[in-house]
Structure formats: structure tokens, C-alpha cells
Amino acid sequence: MNASAYISGKMVVGRKAPPLEDIDLYRPVSMSGKMLKLHYARAQELQPYLAMQATEGEMYVQFWLKPGDEVMELVMDENAPGEAIPGVLAGYL
Questions:
Q1: Quick check: 27 and 19 in contact, CB under 8 A?
Q2: How far apart are CA 33 and CA 58, in angstroms?
């Protein structure tokens, strides 16, 4: 499959980064205070943030398909084994 997946959204996370210096540059992932903003980010661009735990937010995923590519669907399995709410997030409820 040759589809490209891009993620957009924003989340509150627990680490502070320096402010942006050049607003005109394309930044698929940016951090301001505890807000992580995604703008057409690809999975490999999220690597530095994988150890962070998001406490709230929303995001959506787009799959850009080429003619002839198989249709894709993102399915969240609510019956998958594991904690429904990770312990580290329980205090936010």
C-alpha cells in the first residue's frame, strides 16, 4: 500500500518547548507550553513525542490514496485487551 497518512489536531502534554522563531516555516508538529499541535504530521514526525501522555485533545487522521489504492478505515477496538483508562490518566477524570 502506498497511501500517505497525515494527522492533525492538538493535545495538552507535560513538557514545555521554546517558542517558534519563524512562523512562516511549515511545522507538522509544534509545541507551545503544554499544547502539542499537529498539522498534517506523519507518523515518523511524532517520534520525539512518543513518551508523552496526552491528557485531553482531539485529532483526526486523513489517508491520501492514489487511484487504485485499497480503501482504508481506522478502527478503534474498544474490546482490545488492556486498561480502558491508563492509570496515569485516572486523576484527570
A1: no
A2: 17
